[in-house]
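Backbone shape codes:
***
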Amino acid sequence: MKAVCATDLSAASEATIESETCLECLGRVGVDEMHLVTVIPSNVHAGMPGMDFEGRRQRALERYRGVIESAGFDVETHVVRGTPHRRITGIATTVGAGITIVGSRGKSPLENRVIGSTARNLARTTETPLLVNRIEREAENPDVVREHLFQRMLYATDFSENADRAFEAFSYLRHATRETTLIHVETPKDPGLREGENPENRLGELAAQLEEWGIETRTELRRGDPADEILGAETTYEPTAILVGSRGHSRLRRLLLGSVSEDIVARADSNVLLIPPSRTA
């Protein structure tokens, strides 16, 4: 599997690259080729005196290449210009990546209301599974918050088609996952449940499939606001990653705040693995 790892060359974005445990986890789920991408924003001009932006970034990526190659991965580097989330998404599509990785320190409650971070924009527009690797928020030399990326999973489902698509990620995650909590938050209208269908039974069916793969599994049914309840379960079970499906990506949707998946990307303390709709959907 090919992975695109986006970096702005900051200390925070180096954390995943420098974590042997994170790289080992990626290898266990099938990643064998890494594409390192750094984007020079469009408003940074090449002609600014004394500023060799491309050269400096390429040299930095070459240092990262050595670390990742020594961990057993094939590595390609990309220094590009443009809008970060658009260029990252474009490269992931071009190379046929199976996952895109971006580091995020998370946001304060006030900052969560602001659109613009690369992680949040990628959450809205990505066409490949997106791993938001959570980095320590205020440390001078930050480290990843959860090194074992997929060891303890929290999978949230509304039983919709795209939630089912997210569950399919366990086909490769199971090689790195030891335990999983399956959670469904009941709302007045559950889009994926037929009338009279029992959500506990549906969770039980999913749990049985994971247990066949040797993954220790628990289920939990909650009521309330989906994002709040999923994040409440995160506090209870302290997963290394939350697995969730996103909705569609119409132009109108990209302008809207408040989707469950975006709330989780912005507010979770754990890593988040976001699975987008099928490209053919």
